[in-house]
Amino acid sequence: MSLQQVLAPQLQQSLALLQAPTLELKALVEQELQQNPLLEEVQAEDQEQVEKPEREGDTALISQADPAEPPADVNFDPATEKANSEPVDDFQAEFERLTQLDQEWRDHFAETSIPMRTSPEEEERRQFMFDSLASGTSLQEHLLEQVRLSEVTDDQRPVAEMIIGNIDDYGYLKATIEEMALGTGLPTELILGVLNVIQTFHPAGVGARDLRECLLLQLERQNKQHTSEYRIVHDFMEALGKRRIPEIARGLGQDVVDVQKAIQRIGLLEPRPGRAFLPDNDQYVLPEVFVIKSGEDFVVSTNNEQIPHLRISNTYKDLMAQADSSSEVREYIREKIRAGKFLIKSLHQRQQTIRNIATEIVNRQREFMQKGVAYLKPLTMVQVAEVVGVHETTVSRAVSGKYMQTPQGIFEMKYFFTSGIQTATGEGMSNTSVKDMIADIFKAEDPGKPLSDQEVVLMLSERGIVIARRTVAKYRSELNILPSNLRKVY
User: Fold this and answer.
1) Alpha-carbon distances, residue 370 vs 297, 416, 425, 463 (angstroms)
2) pLDDT per residue over 165-187, tens digit each?
3) With 404 labelled, which of 197, 272, 410, 465 sits at a CA distance of 20 to 30 A?
4) What is the pLDDT of residues 428-438, one digit of tens each?
5) Residue-by-residue DSSP string for 363-393
6) Residue 382 Cα to chain centre, angstroms
């Protein structure tokens, strides 16, 4: 015997709808449309004629007076049906009106819709357009094509393919010569000879085993074997990584300024040769909430245009009205109507919850909306949950993967929930604001005399922000800013 908590299927569905971003939500709704034949989506151009939404603010999704939903006096719950001789499904007059409306709607589409007819020539041109769409070529495919065009012999070709298979997407060889020789039984001289051929392929630096070899290959391709850049990479790679420029200058016997210029030219090389062949991983953000400034106030609205608008199909209501419909058919339709109504209600509740949370965020972050990141205030999900009247886990699900378009730009909704740092005046300041302030301090520093973390602590204390040196070091690391000794420019 054991006790365990189990979420009802409808509650699981409701939570999934709340947590899903807009694009995932559309996929979930499309899946429900396929599983529930009683549901149908109302197109945007038809909503004004089919629906008359009862707007609450600007979040209402579906109207309670929608003719596509069951009438108010129609009860599909068998638990409340009256046990008498009168048939419980005898709503003939109401269903006749719905049937007539449905027929008029079908006649309207029959008159206005024009079937698409395409000639063989148009279809051929259309297919040619799809066939002409270019697809991206991977780095491995690019290298294999060069193998076919190179002077690699038939005996060497399997070795070349094996080496290319061990080159990662950034262009580096991830297996050693010894590992490949041990795995294939081939002599190391053969594998190394084929690797030398691959390292002459495009892009320059491909097939390198480390960053040093990658940079040297690119400099050799540019015939710069006798330059300061080549000597720095070849002999002083460790010192270059730690920016010990005086040490490099002494080793080369050159002036620090000349070494600095050579290092700048090295910075123009590509540390990841395969970068150009990486797939396009740009993520397109679709804002869930819009915040628009109207006078002195901010108007919060949800992105209802991307949310599918649903209704219960009239066709199946007709089946309920038919006297010859069996009890099994009616019970099936009742079940699907309940599921459809719950989905519609869940969609409406999702939008309302997101809007309420966004409204409270805007109320607490008014200065951010007006002035920017420096005025972001500390905010927790518990504070928002108490005002909205939901649990903090609901707030977490509602803001997960959602974005808000504000007068200051587009931000993830989780961005507004940050811990705080107490200032000298006793007010709270978001750690995001402090981090942004630290970034501005480092941007304004003298490159020849970079600021230490302790100096930044003193500068922040002058602004009334008391913060430890290790916290500044932590924020500097999160901002990808090097320590002062590695930022110094000679």
Assistant:
1) 10, 14, 22, 21
2) 999 999 999 999 999 999 888 99
3) 465
4) 677 788 888 88
5) HHTHHHHHH-GGGPPP--HHHHHHHHTS-HH
6) 25
